[in-house]
Amino acid sequence: MANFSTHLKASTIVSATLSSVLLSMSEVSGFQTLGLFIVGALAGLLPDLDSDKSKSLNSLFSIFAILAAGVLLLNFKFNSIIETWGLGLIVYLLFMFVIKPIFEHFTVHRATLHSISAVCMFGILAFHSSLLLGVTLHLSLLCSIFVFVGALTHLVLDECYSVDIDNKELKASFGTALKPIDLRYPFTSLAQVGITIGCVYFAMPHFSTITDLLYTWADRLQTITFLPNLSDYEWPIELS
Questions:
Q1: Residue 183 and residue 171: Cα distance in Å, rounded?
Q2: Which of 38, 49, 136, 231 is most enclosed, with most CB atoms within 10 A?
Q3: Which domain holds residue 65?
Q4: Alpha helical stretches, state H, the chain
Q5: Does one domain contain both 151 and 112?
Q6: By percentage, how much of the chain surpasses pLDDT 70?
Q7: pTM of the entire predicted model
Q8: Cα dist. 152→16, 36, 70 in Å?
Q9: Which segments cross the bilayer (predicted)?
């Protein structure tokens, strides 16, 4: 499987590509593009929340703890510096000493979080989390897409690393990442599917608006110019 650094680089490249397309479509502002880029890049690390390596797990939860604290601090006003620092510290400690031990105890690496069902769950949870934070539906849907694509990039990369090109054979880890659902852990897998279905149900009031947005994006994608028009440039004329 790919290591922490490789996953981060891959998701960063994919997220940067998506961000540049959105910017070319004039669909979001520069600041929003930067935010979506960061979300997509970090989403490429989500499936490794079940990592068995303590160093990688500490790095992951430190990143997400700082991100969560930052989001809360940006969305709520506080009367003093002490309150601001206190909330940031509480969120960080909550992630590192409450949530992280739960993940360490109940998760197995390359199990249920390395599956299509988990990627779908991450994406739909990102949508609802964004709405709860007061983000517009338009931006919430984009955030969900970036999380989905980032997490999916992680699984695809793991499967690519499971192929031994030199020896023309498949490693034992092949098929353990990019799978629809992990039947070895039925309770956890069903919980993921249940969360996803529940979130989709609560998103139903937005379906018509989401459909309109998707059609609009599809139309704008067709108008993007990928190659420069050379006739727009002035070329020096050589005098004979």
A1: 20
A2: 49
A3: 53-107
A4: 4-24, 30-43, 54-75, 81-94, 100-106, 116-132, 137-160, 186-202, 207-222
A5: yes
A6: 80
A7: 0.81
A8: 15, 16, 25
A9: 28-46, 58-76, 82-99, 111-131, 137-157
